[in-house]
């Protein structure tokens, strides 16, 4: 199996656009098209349904995507193992995290790693933290900073780096946004809410509303916690987010935590990776360097 063709296939499967896939792989669109056609001929099946307007994976293409990602990961691990006995590890490490996590944790984590392994290039992607674990599972990233779900998916290793409570915030200096009590049903049913589209915070909030028999007034659903602070600061409603996001926000002085905070439980942040990828010398070196967070209450 041609590794280059597999990489082109995976890139096209991610972008679903021949031009963007070609640009990402630094080849011409005709090269991508020709490689995909050759793959389909070798496999005897269509991997994509395509016309002038769209490119969509077929059922066989979706199945082949899992195979291709597995082969590429094994190939990367093997190549890295050949360099493991060299004086210095060389290669690339792909990391995914939110914007807040990138400047809250990555500086400390990567400073020592870069000193120890200057030959490893860091490829950083930022985005919605709710997608972190999915991107690792899909093979799009080597490492991700993610909130620990109630149950970790099979095959994922997780190392805790911080714990942050989930808090409710409102526009500053306006007491009309403050509930008389944490579970005041009439308040929560009328107040506009700005919440995440998905992720741990959304799951916890939905569960709390259900327990309190509250039908929330959802004003907006957003991707990324940083946008919640922005919308709350503009007076659009009450938001829910990890406290660490508020602590690091440039808009922190324009919002205020609610006086009565419903308890949504801890928000555990950590590094996640596919267990099988820990065989990679590069990923193993990164993983072993991570400190073990001690969250035992101090007496």
Question: Could you explain how this protein is built, in words?
Answer:
By secondary structure, this protein is an alpha/beta fold. It has helices spanning 3-15, 18-25, 29-43, 59-83, 99-104, 106-116, 132-137, 185-190, 200-211, 225-233, 243-247, 281-289, and strands at residues 48-50, 55-57, 91-97, 120-126, 143-147, 156-171, 192-196, 217-222, 238-242, 255-257, 266-274. The strands form two sheets. Strands 3, 4, 5, 6, 7, 8, 9, 10 and 11 form a nine-stranded mixed β-sheet that branches. It has a two-stranded antiparallel ribbon with strand order 1-2. Helix 1 crosses helix 3. The longest helix is centred in the N-terminal third of the chain and has 25 residues, at 59-83. It starts with a helix and ends in a 10-residue tail after the last helix. Mean pLDDT is 88; it is low at 294-299.
List keywords for this structure.
single chain, 299 residues, alpha/beta, D-Maltodextrin-Binding Protein, domain 2, nine-stranded mixed sheet, 12 helices, disordered C terminus
Task: Explain briefly what this protein structure is.
By secondary structure, this protein is an alpha/beta fold. The protein has twelve helices and eleven strands. The strands form two sheets. Strands 3, 4, 5, 6, 7, 8, 9, 10 and 11 form a nine-stranded mixed sheet that branches.
